[in-house]
Amino acid sequence: MKEGDEVILPAYTYCATANVVIHCGATPVFVDVNPHDFNISISNIEKAITSKTKVIMPVDFAGHCCDYDQLNALVIKHKAQFIPQTNEQKILDRVLILSDSAHSFGAWYKGKRAGSLTDVSVFSFHAVKNLTTAEGGAIALNLPAPFDNEAVYKTLCVKTLHGQDKDALAKTIKGNWRYDVVEAGYKCNMTDIMAAIGIVELERYDNDTLKVRQHIFEQYDTAFSKLEWAQLPEYKTDNKTSCYHLYPLRIKGISEAQRDAIIKEIFDYDVSVNVHFIPVPMMSFYKKLGYDIKNYPVTYDNYSREISLPVFYDLNDDLVKTVINAVTASVKKVLG
Ligand SMILES: *Cc1c(COP(=O)(O)O)cnc(C)c1O
Predict the structure, then answer these.
(1) Whose CA is nearest to atom 8 of ligand 1?
(2) Could you tell me if 71 and 31 are in contact, meaning their C-beta atoms sit under 8 angstroms apart?
(3) I need a surface site. Which of 90, 107, 301, 322 has the fewest CB within 10 A?
């Protein structure tokens, strides 16, 4: 990637998705999202593809997968427009799909799991995510032939460990002390202690963590589906099941100021809620670069009416009731 290259991503995401594009010297091209599921709109991606597009970064918002069949077909359809520059781009010979799967570890799409749905998927194991190693993440490689995913994995391991061709453990093996540095690498490998946390979390993920989170979602659905002002999030369809990462409730017909007032009331009940996300074009750094939220009306509408309700393992049924009561009373107080 280099200056002038374009990367297409949703306006409605966390800054990390866009920041990495800046780090590469490329240009983030934000596009608007869907009104129904918060995910990047595939028809808007199609309008944004140019001969400079090198990567598309879909985000599986709230743990609900994007439509990967459509995304994968789109980059094939636009193959003729692609102008490769690097060696890897020449081999791929089309736009790369690099999924920001920070929310979707364990989610399903057409019988397949997040991480296996497109070229590359990146998971976050940060403390606020479904599966955590305190800090860290994972990259799932699924590049088409003739790429050798095992070889790409080895290259990434070298890059994340100072460009050394051997890790510390390999060097302790008899007669194996000598090593080489093949590039000026970085230090961003996962530590063994973090990985140990991940192994334990992974074991209980499907049958414990996800079940508990699903149960919380279902209680919210039951309560809020009875209330006229509530717009429930989509997290299960015929071919998708989310991993219940966020419960992004929307309130019908309210302004951003009313949403903020509702949140203030909810906090007065000692219930902590959040907003996912303040869209990236609304952040000062990106505003200074010339991005304007006015160009992403669905993103703004979703954001201005959104409140993420608490979803965490120790949220028992009584606490869920407390949340439901606090939200209901606060909406009533603000909207009358
Ligand atoms: C959390 C998050 C990230 C970043 O994850 P880190 O592990 O903190 O780097 C990226 N994208 C989205 C959408 C996120 O929510």
Answers:
(1) 126
(2) no
(3) 90
Q: Which residue has the tokens 């991606």?
A: 45
User: Is the CB of residue 137 below 6 angstroms from any atom belonging to ligand 1?
Assistant: yes
pTM for the whole thing?
A: 0.96
CA 332 to mean position of chain CA atoms: 32
Spans of all domains in the chain: 204-335
Question: Within a 10 A sphere around the Cβ of 8, how many other Cβ atoms?
Answer: 25
Token digits of residue 324: 């439901």
pLDDT per position as a tens digit, 226-259? 999 999 999 999 999 999 999 999 999 999 999 9
The overall average pLDDT reported for the chain is 97
pLDDT tens for 262-309 read 999 999 999 999 999 999 999 999 999 999 999 999 999 999 999 999
Q: Residue 248 forms beta bridges with which residues? A: 308
**Secondary structure (3-state) at 202:** helix
110 CA distance to ligand 1 middle (Å): 24
The answer, yes or no, to whether any atom of ligand 1 lies below 6 A from the CB of 17, is yes
CATH T-level fold of 204-335: Aspartate Aminotransferase, domain 1 (3.90.1150)
Q: Residue 92's closest CA among 146, 140, 21, 139?
A: 146
Q: Is the CB of 194 under 6 A from ligand 1?
A: no
Task: Provide the percentage of residues in the chain whose pLDDT is more than 70.
Answer: 100
Q: 104 CB under 6 A from ligand 1?
A: no
Q: Which of 9, 14, 30 to mutate to test the pocket of ligand 1 (most atoms within 8 A of CB)?
A: 14
